[in-house]
């Protein structure tokens, strides 16, 4: 993986597996009493979110700080965007301050790719319209692999609003690259016009596929992206496609229940099901930090451009915490700046 992370379609199976392998080391870093290494000291990562976010924005910010990068957060609600500033002018303004990476979320598909053409900084897609959400697919793949060892041969059902879901599109690409069999489960109105580009099966009957699933991946209704009523009522949708306790009991032993969040409890998933031991939803969030650490490290860290080789870079990045904290005041565990005495850019005011 090199340059930018815009879409899972840009990655080979080897690329995806490299991210997951590096994530193993980042999970170990995150488990330490002082979860901080100097791998990205001196780098600056900007979060540019034109849509609301909690999990993705905070986990990217946490990931960058655990790698000792400086961080800046951009809040549309308190920026010059409200005065008519264009995306391009915003990018050029931020780039003039000296940055290394931009993590961008936007309601329009293709904006991260366009930004990549306007800047020399690394661009990471944190979600663009209906299009892609690559780091969500990587953390989902990592979560499944951590429980099952591999995705090869697993049957994964993605249930719900496939039509409007960038998570579904990215997960389909990642899961099938790693050898899983994917079934999309949704009413016809919540499916794309064509699923032909994907190597997937389609079912309109959740009850018919439950008994064969290794992973039941639930999606919420993307009502903020809908322009028409696509199901008669939410109650009817829940009756046909919601994972109730009774349905969850019919999943095979060892099957995982997943959801990218935010959940609509009582709609696509019953509240008691979300809290079951086989529901790994909060684990997905935790793994999101480690996966995004791996992505930032591979794109910005010493492993980039093979200077030095990746194995040596990881060995350095996962050095003993005592070595990190003993190297000087720059390694403040609060995520301080890379230069002593230089204030860290404020992260207040970001959207959630």
Note the topology.
Elements (H helix, E strand, L loop, with lengths): L12 H18 L13 E6 L5 H12 L3 E6 L11 H10 L4 E6 L4 H8 L3 E7 L5 H15 L6 E5 L6 H12 L3 E5 L14 E4 L2 H4 L5 E4 L15 H8 L3 H5 L6 E3 L12 H4 L6 H20 L9 H8 L3 H5 L27
Parallel strand pairs: 1-2, 1-3, 3-4, 5-6, 5-8, 6-7, 8-9
Estimated helix fraction: 25-40%
Record field, number of beta strands: 9
Kindly report the name of the CATH homologous superfamily of the largest domain.
Aspartate/ornithine carbamoyltransferase
Count of discrete structural domains: 2
Helix count from the secondary structure assignment: 13
Q: What structural category arises from helix and sheet content?
A: alpha/beta
**What is Rg?**
20 Å
Largest sheet: 5 strands, parallel
Percentage of β-strand residues: 5-15%
* Largest sheet: spatial strand order: 7-6-5-8-9
Highest CATH level, the class of the largest domain: Alpha Beta
**Gap from first CA to last CA:** 29 Å
Question: What overall form do the CA principal axes indicate?
Answer: globular
Order of helices and strands: HEHEHEHEHEHEEHEHHEHHHH
CATH topology of the largest domain: Rossmann fold
Account of the protein in words:
- There is one protein chain.
- The chain has 352 residues and is α/β, with parallel strands linked by helices.
- The chain folds into two domains: 8-133 and 287-325, Aspartate/ornithine carbamoyltransferase (Rossmann fold); 134-284, Rossmann fold.
- Helices cover 37% and strands 13% of the residues.
- The protein is built from 13 helices and nine strands.
- A five-stranded parallel beta sheet has the order 7-6-5-8-9. A four-stranded parallel beta sheet has the order 2-1-3-4, with helices on both faces.
- The longest helix has 20 residues, at 281-300.
- It starts with 12 loop residues before the first helix and ends in a 27-residue tail after the last helix.
């Amino acid at each position: 993986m090199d340059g930018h992370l815009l879409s899972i379609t840009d990655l080979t199976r080897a690329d995806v597996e490299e991210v997951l392998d590096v994530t193993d080391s980042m999970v170990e870093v995150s488990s330490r009493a002082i979860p901080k290494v100097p791998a990205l000291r001196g780098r600056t990562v900007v979060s540019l979110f034109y849509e609301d976010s909690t999990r993705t924005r905070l986990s990217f910010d946490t990931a960058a700080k655990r790698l000792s990068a400086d961080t800046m957060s951009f809040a549309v609600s308190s920026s010059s965007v409200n005065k008519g500033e264009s995306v391009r002018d915003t990018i050029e303004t931020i780039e003039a301050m000296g940055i290394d990476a931009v993590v961008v979320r936007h309601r329009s598909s293709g904006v991260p790719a366009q930004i990549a053409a306007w800047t020399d900084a690394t661009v990471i897609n944190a979600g663009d319209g209906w299009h892609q959400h690559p780091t969500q697919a990587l953390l989902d793949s990592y979560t499944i692999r951590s429980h099952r060892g591999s995705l090869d041969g697993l049957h994964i059902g993605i249930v719900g609003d496939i039509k409007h879901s960038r998570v579904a599109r990215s997960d389909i690409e990642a899961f099938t690259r790693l050898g899983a069999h994917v079934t999309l489960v949704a009413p016809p109105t919540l499916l794309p016009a064509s699923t032909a580009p994907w190597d997937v099966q389609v079912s309109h009957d959740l009850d018919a596929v439950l008994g064969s699933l290794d992973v039941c991946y639930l999606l919420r209704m993307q009502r903020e992206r809908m322009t028409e009523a696509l199901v008669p009522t939410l109650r009817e949708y829940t009756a046909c496609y919601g994972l109730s306790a009774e349905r969850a009991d019919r999943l095979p032993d060892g099957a995982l229940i997943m959801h990218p969040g935010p959940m609509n409890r009582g709609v696509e998933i019953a509240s008691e099901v979300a809290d079951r031991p086989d529901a790994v939803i909060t684990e997905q969030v935790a793994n999101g930090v480690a996966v995004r650490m791996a992505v930032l490290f591979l794109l910005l860290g010493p492993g980039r451009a093979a200077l030095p080789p990746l194995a040596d870079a990881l060995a350095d990045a996962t050095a003993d915490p005592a070595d990190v904290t003993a190297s000087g005041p720059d390694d403040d565990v609060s995520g301080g700046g890379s230069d002593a005495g230089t204030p860290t850019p404020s992260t207040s005011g970001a959207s959630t």
